[in-house]
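Okay, any thoughts on this one?
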Amino acid sequence: MATSRRVSRVAELIKREVSQMLLNGIKDDRVGTGMVSVTDVDVSGDLQHAKIYVSIYGTEEAKAETMAGLKSATGYVRSELGARVRLRRTPEVVFIEDRSIERGSKVLSLLNQLELQRQPENGENEEEEV
């Protein structure tokens, strides 16, 4: 139980620190191409690996450029984490694009379209209920 609490606490620390780095630490211009935010961090039980999920707003080209920039900044991010978060060993860092917000948005859009199609046109059925 204490281990899972520690892992989630470390994940939260990493999320906060990487979010700060995205705002003003990473100098790679490609990272600034799309708006980037850290959506989640998954840390292994032994604290050796950290998957950092990022949501990127922009065109497919901007997303690809941003991911390339993040991949090249991995060493910098890891060394900064080592300096900012006190752990025996700094975890290996991997950035993963999180498209769940995008998928959720598409699903909502489809649901809204279905709702519009189901509504009676010009109140046809409303008159029958009177």
Summary: Residues 1-116 form a domain with the GMP Synthetase; Chain A, domain 3 fold (CATH 3.30.300.20). Residues 13 and 87 are 11 Å apart (CA to CA). DSSP finds five helices and three strands in the chain.
